[in-house]
Amino acid sequence: MEVDPISLYTTPIFLSKGDKLVSQGTGFFYAHQDANLQILYLVTNFHVLTGSSPSENKPPIGDNIAFQFHLSEIEPGKIKTVRFPLFAKNGKPVWITSSSYPEVDLAVIPLVTSLYQDCKINYVSAEWAKGNLKVRPTTNVTLVGYPYGFYDKKNALPIWKTGSVASEPKMDFDGKPLFLIDVSAFPGMSGSPVFAISYGMYETEEGNTTVGGIRKFLGIYASMQMVGKEKYLEEIVHGVRLGIVDSESLEIGHVWKADIILETVKSINVQKYQEEVLKNLV
Asked: Is the pLDDT of residue 275 over 50?
């Protein structure tokens, strides 16, 4: 059985209040080499963990999450499900946000080795963001996640959805470290990693043309632009006729750039996090 490695990078994230499921989104694994230690992180949106955007300052709607690790690359349906508290006993959240841009809809959780020591971990790394692929408006992009919680549950594999870049990717849209994509996306996909993928011939950053497959990590999908508002909240909706198009949606999605994720991860004081958070987990 051959499974694309990207399909093993992601996990559904189920947000609960106690034992009651309140929301569902997407997350993915990211690894960073810190000195001689490689640390694994779960990356998702702030609103996937809290139910609201960072700027809204609302109380969180849940207190724990569940997510999955693959136990086998050959049989991806074999998984380990982890339930993880969102707050330490001292009240500190387990996630870390961007200190440079507090409004960024991003949350990063360092994961202790004991959670995944028997698992087969596939992950994004900083190298994925350095691919020599020219990205411009209309470049095809791929989001990998769990729309409305829909995915291949038998094999624990996500859904791939495609779109295209809809703003100048080198520019910070409205002064924020994000760019826009033209895509049909749904609740549950927030937190999806976004890639530019090319097979065969492609244009390099220098403007040359070369042959061979390439994949480049572009960032994290967060929300859809609605007429006059942004849609952040992930909700599991029962009895909804899937496929109905929201008349207020512009079908324009927000992608926070890979650089802000890399910067946030690199800024984490691991020792301080261990003292203040990990040692105080319930």
From this structure: yes
Q: What is the pLDDT of residue 245?
A: 45
pLDDT above 60 for 44:
yes
Determine the distance from the C-alpha atom of residue 73 to the mean position of all C-alpha atoms in its chain, rounded to a whole number.
Answer: 21
Q: Residue 235's closest CA among 84, 86, 15, 5?
A: 15
**Helix, strand, coil in percent for the chain, rounding step 5:** 15, 40, 45
Q: What is the DSSP letter of 6?
A: G
**How far apart are alpha carbons 118 and 3 in whole angstroms?**
20
DSSP-assigned beta bridge partners for residue 110? 41
Three-class SS of 215-281: EEEEEEEEEEEECCEEECCCCCCCCCCCCCCCCCEEEEEEEEEHHHHHHHHHCCCHHHHHHHCHHHC
In angstroms, the Cα distances linking 134 to 26, 139, 204, 252 are 27, 9, 5, 21
Reading across the β-sheet that carries 79-85, which strands appear in turn? Answer: 79-85, 64-70, 10-17, 20-34, 37-44, 107-111
Distance of CA 55 to the CA centre of its chain: 19
The structure's pTM equals 0.90
Q: What is residue 78's three-state secondary structure?
A: coil
Closest CA to 97 of 282, 235, 281, 273: 273
